[in-house]
Amino acid sequence: MKGVRLGRNERVDSLDHLGRRILQREDGFRFSMDAVLLAHFPRYGKGCRVLDLGTGTGAVPLLMAEEAAYVEALELDGSMAGMAARSVLLNGLERKIRVRRGDYREIRSLLPPEGFDVVLANPPYGGAADGPHAKGAKALARQEVAATLSDVVRAARYALRYRGKFAMVHRPARLAEIFAAMAENRLVPKRMRLVEPRAGKPANLVLIEAVQGGAPGGLVVLPTLRVYGADGMYTPELLEIYGKE
Question: What does the alpha-carbon distance between residue 91 and residue 1 come to, in Å, rounded to a whole number?
Fold first, then answer.
């Protein structure tokens, strides 16, 4: 595998995208549909520079690498950052993607300001007090035990160039907080899409794209994306996003 060694309880999974693969732990956090939807939601520009905040095992950069000239992937957890870096090597993308271990709450000490055209984030959905906590990397990924929603939006604002785009996937229940955090950091929502599991069920995900320094207003709410059809199978649109239709 191009000199990439597997650690204990690690495995190689397919990303179902351009033949790319990813290292993941059998007993740890693994990427989900959220990462796939986020990677394919923004409108990337030719030659853009992209920053992924809290990359985990690196799924998002691996899923959208061909859209960018360069991708920086920032991850707090050392074990996951190491797996992400080895996945980059496994796919021969080391000239395109750089994985950096670091805390985006300290982004000013890690990266220069306004250096990216697009910033992506799949942050923890739950507040620190929401329900029982997972442990270790799973806790960092699922709940705000380290960084908060405000932290990730503030980091995105710092990293984005003027008129750059910030795309995030989150829970609809926190939309009011999301809009407030974006307004505080001069990020103006311009595109939004709800994701519902199936007909008649409330949306459980929301995709948002905001512009740094954009004019107020002009939010476009796209048609809701449905995951499962009446037959219990993925809808044609979701299969298209996955590249299987």
Answer: 9
